[in-house]
């Protein structure tokens, strides 16, 4: 019996061929492949502008920069997210202010955000947690009239939909991740998408030291034009090697989503019959890509979350604790937020686990996971 992993990227011969071609071309840094990846991503996600960067964390930084968030501002974020969401405001001198999430979706809502707003709030980072689309329209209805920018953190959201369109399509600005734990991967990588040409232009410059002439353009000319550095920028570039892999991955996106949703449907069918287990599901306003297929464990299931994790591990199934909470990490001890300050986030984080789900998952592997969930419930019929 071999281990069932929680996630596995789906990479193959086509990605290898794309990489070989880029290496043979002699140009491996940001260049034509990045431009082509951006154009493809913008088309697939129905975004007006797309700017590729080195990770979603750097995309978050640039999004806050172009949105004009500065020293002394406040940015409302969920604590219930990967820690990069909470860290990014500090990069521009702002302070993250934690808001609680909805107990069903795990996402911010207009009601939870409203309680966290102050005179100093300049932006909100709304996450499509685990791929579940956030109710963006309600957030924008709250924030737009107040001049607060809503940044959609769609790190996990490629292939999810909101009111029939890809997530992020209705955002003024959104950020994406291509880490191997996400839906499509470039090893490391990220993207900023935005409806605003001025923000896209500035993000494009900031990612490359705010040079007036891009490196690709300089190297493309024999007598390189003199460049200027218009403001203090960064090196947040993606490489053409990464982008070439990303282009192939995007071609597979709909197939990946279709397979993930098939596997999720099978899980849900069985889990709905197990008392005390509640699986993540599509919200009324969209569809999830099931980037994280999480299950909430409660009474009368005989094991608690950690007990179930240990039970799964005992049969070589690698599940994961649910989403973390940033406010309970040592890095945020200075905020002085004691237990119970974000009750729903804490509850979800402590009682959920993420089940294995990946494109190549076999029927046999999934049956093993389902059998272990059932045997953990004390029922005999599936124990083998
Ligand atoms: C993974 C993740 C990030 C960070 O993405 P990187 O590409 O690894 O920097 C940010 N926000 C959320 C919600 C994530 O899940």
Automatic annotation (TrEMBL):
CDD domains: AHBA_syn. One of its GO terms (molecular function) is pyridoxal phosphate binding. Keywords: Aminotransferase, Pyridoxal phosphate, Transferase. InterPro entries: DegT/StrS_aminotransferase, PyrdxlP-dep_Trfase, PyrdxlP-dep_Trfase_major, PyrdxlP-dep_Trfase_small. It comes from the Bacteria. Its cofactor is pyridoxal 5'-phosphate. One of its GO terms (biological process) is polysaccharide biosynthetic process. Belongs to the DegT/DnrJ/EryC1 family. This is Glutamine--scyllo-inositol aminotransferase. It comes from Aeromicrobium chenweiae. The lineage of its organism: Bacteria, Bacillati, Actinomycetota, Actinomycetes, Propionibacteriales.
